[in-house]
């Protein structure tokens, strides 16, 4: 073979790992176990789409290591493809970390379930995206979360109206900028100032602004979230959501 085309053939990782015992396996088992060596020194410019739900462990000792000695174990717990999106979005948002979800509403659900519970009080801008308000009204309330809506279109001073709604058990102030579908823009800085004064968590759904145009965390919000199904996806071919946090203290 010419030197220019001297390319090593792929090797069977299972055969190398199992050694002599591999040759004694039934053909069906050989086919099932055989796979090329995982990439170690290759860095594809376009991130591959990893479909695998689970990952192999090299040894039993690796299984016993913390997190099984691997970043990736099971799809629900993490995936190299989505991690790449998380890294890029976190960079735009300037956060401590981002997590990608199956939809924008899944991301919103995750935030509410994580921080709210029976006996806590949520202050929420209205009107907001219909899926979010349905979830709050039809689901969150059933689980004992108290909710006060503050109408961004009726209140002359939105931040002041938010402050008046604060109760001793207020846990979170949630609003959108720009709002879907009204395109209302609340007083973001004023509202964040009120939240800071009363030490209340803030979560901003900035889907309609996109993280390119506004980075809520840099303005002082604790949590920023997006439906990636809009500007982040950009081509009407993606359903996803992302949550970015300013820090891990909460
Ligand atoms: C502002 C806003 N937040 C959340 C969502 C929900 O996102 P998804 O459709 O990705 O679940 C939408 C969807 O239209 C939205 O406009």
UniProtKB/TrEMBL annotation:
Q: Which InterPro entries match?
A: Cys/Met-Metab_PyrdxlP-dep_enz (IPR000277), PyrdxlP-dep_Trfase (IPR015424), PyrdxlP-dep_Trfase_major (IPR015421)
Q: According to the lineage, what is the superkingdom?
A: Eukaryota
* Keyword annotations of the record: Pyridoxal phosphate
A molecular function (GO) held by this record is: carbon-sulfur lyase activity
Q: Is Transmembrane helix set as a keyword in this record?
A: no
Q: Please, one GO biological process term?
A: cysteine biosynthetic process
Question: Quick one: a GO cellular component term?
Answer: cytoplasm
For activity, the cofactor(s) needed are: pyridoxal 5'-phosphate
Q: Which Pfam families match?
A: Cys_Met_Meta_PP (PF01053)
Tell me the protein family, please: Belongs to the trans-sulfuration enzymes family.
Q: What is this protein called?
A: Uncharacterized protein
Which species is this UniProt entry from? Caenorhabditis nigoni
């Amino acid at each position: 073979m010419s030197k220019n085309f001297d390319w090593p053939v792929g090797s069977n990782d299972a055969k190398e790992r199992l050694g002599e015992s591999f040759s004694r396996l039934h053909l069906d088992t050989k086919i099932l176990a055989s796979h090329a060596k995982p990439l170690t020194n290759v860095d594809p410019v376009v991130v591959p789409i990893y479909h695998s739900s689970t990952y192999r462990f090299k040894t039993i000792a690796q299984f016993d290591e913390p997190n099984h000695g691997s970043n990736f174990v099971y799809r629900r717990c993490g995936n190299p493809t989505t991690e790449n999106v998380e890294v890029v979005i976190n960079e735009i948002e300037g956060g401590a970390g981002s997590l990608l979800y199956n939809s924008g509403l899944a991301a919103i659900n995750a935030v509410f379930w994580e921080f709210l519970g029976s006996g806590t009080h949520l202050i929420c801008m209205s009107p907001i995206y219909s899926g979010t308000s349905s979830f709050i009204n039809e689901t969150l309330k059933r689980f004992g979360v108290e909710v006060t809506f503050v109408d961004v279109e009726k209140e002359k001073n939105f931040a002041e109206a938010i402050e008046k709604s604060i109760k001793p058990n207020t846990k979170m102030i949630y609003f959108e900028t720009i709002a879907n579908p009204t395109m209302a823009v609340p007083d973001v800085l004023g509202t964040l100032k009120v939240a800071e004064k009363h030490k209340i968590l803030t979560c901003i759904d900035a889907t309609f602004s996109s993280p390119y145009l506004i980075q809520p965390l840099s303005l002082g919000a604790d949590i920023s979230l997006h439906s990636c199904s809009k500007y982040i996806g950009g081509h009407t071919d993606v359903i996803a959501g992302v949550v970015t946090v300013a820090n891990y203290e909460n």
